[in-house]
Amino acid sequence: MEHVHVYPDTAGLARAAAELFVHLAEGAVRARGRFTVALAGGSTPRGTYALLASEAFAPRVDWSRVHVFWGDERCVPPEHPESNHRMARETLLDHVPIPPANVHRIPCEQEPMRAAATYERTLQEFFALAPGAGVPQFDLILLGMGDDGHTASLFPGTAALHERRRWVVAHYVEKLQAWRVTLTPAVLNAADHVAFLVSGAGKATRLREVLRGSYQPDILPAQIVQPASGRLVWLVDAAAAALLFV
Ligand code: 6PG
């Protein structure tokens, strides 16, 4: 099973993800003077973000050179308990010396379509890409996987999975009865590195289907993440990996 690294527990997974972040940040800053990362939402990354904010990790990153984005966002205000921005702020960004101008959140206080258009413009300006000319190439994109096989806010059966032109889309997710804004597959697959963080027994069945089953991204959206030239790694704990090697 290529690129799958199994850790005994969530602490081991968080440490490995934090080490990867630090390693890639050091390399990107040395090579290009900056490190661009799109954070994952949900709950799994909390341990990683808290570690990155700790004395053991934070001093190893030149936060003045780090630019933080998000892979997706719930369409709620930034202070809402459901906000991915709020989760990252509480666990990491409020505890490290990252300049506010380096935090590029998805402005979900705007109505969804407008938030997506604003975020796409942010990407165009930051990566200095004219519309239709290339795709933003993040140094690292962190992703989670839902127990239905979704990733970012690319949910099974949604049109967002087939978006070819836009880098960011807003869509109403029937299953959640909620609007989401998400990076599209083109941006996920342009990244230099993509790391999935997956933990818990509840993900084991789906993880096996995603990694070992047939390619059916409409049903298992995580499968659509196949970086064109970047490296893909799956950092998983033993509980989530329980069915991978049986
Ligand atoms: C979100 C995430 C989503 C998440 C998965 C896994 O906004 O919820 O971007 O894709 O990564 O749902 O979530 P957990 O880590 O909470 O299981």
SSE layout:
Layout (H helix, E strand, L loop, with lengths): L3 E4 L2 H23 L2 E5 L6 H7 L13 E5 L1 E3 L9 H8 L20 H15 L13 E4 L24 E6 L4 E6 L1 H4 L4 E6 L5 H9 L18 E7 L9
The structure holds 6-phosphogluconic acid (6PG).
Helix content: 25-40%
Cα distance spanning the termini = 12 Å
Give helix and strand order, one letter per element, not per position: EHEHEEHHEEEHEHE
As laid out across the biggest beta sheet, the strand order is 1-9-8-5-2-3
Largest sheet: 6 strands, parallel
Bound molecules: 6-phosphogluconic acid
| Tertiary shape | globular
Low-confidence stretches: none
- Total number of beta strands: 9
If you had to describe this structure to a student in words, what would you say it looks like?
The two termini are 12 Å apart. It is globular and about 45 Å long. α1 (10-32) crosses α2. It is α/β, with parallel strands linked by helices and 246 residues long. The strands form 2 sheets. The protein has a 6-stranded parallel β-sheet with strand order 1-9-8-5-2-3, with helices on one face. Strands 4-7-6 form a 3-stranded antiparallel β-sheet. The protein has helices at residues 10-32, 46-52, 84-91, 112-126, 185-188, 204-212; strands at residues 4-7, 35-39, 66-70, 72-74, 140-143, 168-173, 178-183, 193-198, 231-237. The mean pLDDT is 97. The structure holds 6-phosphogluconic acid.
